[in-house]
Specification:
mainly alpha; globular
Length: about 140
């Protein structure tokens, strides 16, 4: 029960942060990626703060044997930069640039009943199901 409550609290905090930062507005994201046009540099601060917080929490978590909820950490074992990783990152980036959404902000916007985000989430789920059916 503690793990569920912690996950809910962190999810809500993350969602509120996405709303405050403007990440749930595709126009902000597309504007940030449009470095040769109407560039919107505000998300650079979001990126910088996000990286600092992630780094700090990663350093702290690596010193812990269990999560705050008492469960085991599941750290990645592979550090290889291989073709599937590069291809997946490229597809993720292309989808993010075209739609203006990545999974987290899309879920928050869909929760706010944004119809475009709802279509994105359905497409994202369909892609996940196709990937699972392919056994990858």
């Amino acid at each position: 029960m503690v793990a569920i409550a912690a996950a809910l609290a962190m999810g809500l905090l993350f969602g509120v942060g996405l709303i405050i930062s403007g990440m749930t507005d595709p126009a902000n994201v597309k504007g940030f990626l449009d470095v040769f046009g109407q560039w919107r540099p505000q998300l650079m601060a979001v990126l910088g703060v996000g990286m600092m917080v992630t780094w700090l929490l990663y350093v702290l978590a690596r010193r812990m044997t269990r999560t705050l909820a008492g469960t085991q950490f599941h750290w990645p074992h592979s550090t290889a930069i291989d073709k599937p990783l590069v291809l997946g990152a490229a597809l993720f980036g292309a989808g993010w640039a075209l739609a203006g959404y990545c999974p987290g902000p899309a879920l928050v916007a869909a929760g706010a009943l944004n119809p475009v985000a709802m279509v994105f989430v359905v497409a994202m789920l369909a892609g996940g199901l196709i990937q699972r059916a392919m056994g990858k």
